[in-house]
Amino acid sequence: MMAFGGKIRRITLLGSLSLLLLAAACGSGSGDKDAPSGGGGHSGHGDGEVHTVSGDLQETTASASALPKFLDGQPEQVRLVYQAAGQATELLSGMPCYCGCMESSAGHKSNMNCFVHEVKEDGSVVWDDHGTRCGVCLQIAAQSISMLAEGKTPEQIRESIEAQYKAS
Predict the structure, then answer these.
(1) Is the pLDDT of residue 85 over 90?
(2) Per-residue pLDDT for 23 more than 70?
(3) β-sheet with 50-53: strand ranges across
(4) What is the pTM of this model?
(5) 127: burial class by Cβ within 10 Å (0-12, 13-18, 19+)?
C-alpha cells in the first residue's frame, strides 16, 4: 500500500509541475525574475540557520524532506517545485540556468543552486530562496524533473533545456 501512496503523490506532483509550466508559459514571458518573493520579511525562521548570500536568503534544514520556512508564504506550486528539487539535486546539478544567476554574484553553478545551495554530508540541506522569485528557474527545474519522470536521460533533458533557453 505504501508504494501505491507514493505513486499517487508522484502523479500529483507531476500534475502540479505541469500546471506550473502551463501557468508560466501563459505569463508575461519576463521570467518574473524581479518579482517579490511574497513572503514578507525573513525574521523568526524556525530552528535552521538563516543567512543571506549575494541577496539570496539561505536556510538550513535537517533534510530535503523538511522545507525551509521562507516557503511558508509562497504559492503551493512554488513549494512543490522546491520539494521536487530537494529530491532531484543530482539531476538539477547537471542542468544550466538561463536567468543570469550563473554569471552574477550569486555564484550558482547549476539550476540546483536556485533552490538548494548545498546538501551537507550529514544530509542537512542549505536551501536558497532565489527560485521563489524567478520564473525561469522554476520552469527549468519543473521541466527537467517532469522529463526525468517521463523516462528521458539527463543528457536528453539537458539538450532539451539548452535548445529551449540558450541564447543564439
Answers:
(1) yes
(2) no
(3) 50-53, 56-61, 125-128, 116-119
(4) 0.72
(5) buried
Beta strands in the chain (DSSP E): 50-53, 56-61, 116-119, 125-128
Number of domains comprising the chain: 1
Question: Exposure string (b/e) for 40-66, b if CB count within 10 Å is 16 or more?
Answer: eeeeebeebebeeeeebbbbbbeebeb
Following CA atoms 28, 32, 36, 37 in sequence, which dihedral angle do they give, to the nearest 10 degrees?
A: 120
Domain coverage including residue 83: 2-165
Compute the chain's Rg from CA coordinates. 15
Tens of pLDDT, residue by residue over 38-84, are 333 333 334 566 656 667 899 999 999 999 999 999 999 999 999 99
